[in-house]
Amino acid sequence: MSEFVLTLACPDRPGIVHAVTKILLDAECNIEDSQQFCDRDSGSFFMRVHFSAVGADLTLEAFKQLFEDTGSSFKMAWKVHDTSVRMRTLILVSKAGHCLNDLLFRHRTGTLPIEIPAIVSNHPDFSGLARSYSIPFHHLPMDPDDKKAQEEQLLELVSGYDIELVVLARYMQILSADLCERLAGNVINIHHSFLPSFRGAMPYHQAHVRGVKLIGATAHYVTPNLDEGPIIEQDVARVEHSLGPAQLVAVGRDVECQVLARAVKWHSEHRVLLNGDRTVVFR
């Protein structure tokens, strides 16, 4: 039995849910799960429907044709996805490998529904880790005087591997505005702070000096505005005075791994819809 996920966003008005469910009924589909949200501030309506084709051998393309007129009449930005097809995800990393290792383990154990065709790094440090998971590793060193050349190589990999999602798993390079725009809505970053927070180098050391009681992490979409993209997920851990900077780093790494994994999972399951500078997350 084929299963699909339909996501949509459009101006709010009466009849949207009825129109969607009628198409599913006429196509002999069964709704497995449905979530919706109306943003009164923007007047926008968001919906995610997970459905299965019960009475017919419905294909993805056939459903797109069935839904096209309804999508146009309600001015919807909509997509439909086959749940059996895993999202092809490129992971970028620098010299901190905890998030990479966590994502690879979750992928291998089947708890993260993505495919990882390749790993990219501006350092060679994790080539062995990639090899242990039988995943191609691409070392793309960064020349500060020719950043564009490295990003062109990265885009070639995105195209060559048919990548749908790029994950910055502590990739410590700022993406150019051009690259951000070309991959808009398809790049997730993990920020080692609960934004807004300590900026610049050594944030956990800054936190220790200030005697913070909460540290956290933020997963967000990447935009040309550094660390200001739409937030997908955040979490915090409580800490106390006896923890030094190294211990704060260890606690922070655990939070980073969990927050990034949740964000990647929700994105790959088509649970995250952009709402201007914010997100709607159907968990």
Outline the secondary-structure elements.
Blueprint: E1 3-11, H1 16-26, E2 29-39, E3 44-53, H2 60-73, E4 77-82, E5 87-93, H3 98-108, E6 114-121, H4 127-132, E7 137-139, H5 147-160, E8 165-168, H6 177-182, E9 187-191, H7 203-210, E10 214-221, E11 231-238, H8 245-268, E12 272-275, E13 278-281
Helix pairs in contact: 3-8, 7-8
Helix proportion range: 25-40%
Number of folding domains?
2
CATH topology of the largest domain: Rossmann fold
For the record, what is the CATH homologous superfamily label of the largest domain?
Answer: Formyl transferase, N-terminal domain
Largest sheet geometry: 7 strands, mixed
Shape: globular
The first-level CATH class of the largest domain is given as Alpha Beta
Number of helices: 8
The value of Rg in angstroms is: 21 Å
β-strand amount = 25-35%
- Mean pLDDT across all residues, rounded? 94
Structural class: alpha/beta
Low-pLDDT runs: none
**How many beta-strand elements?**
13
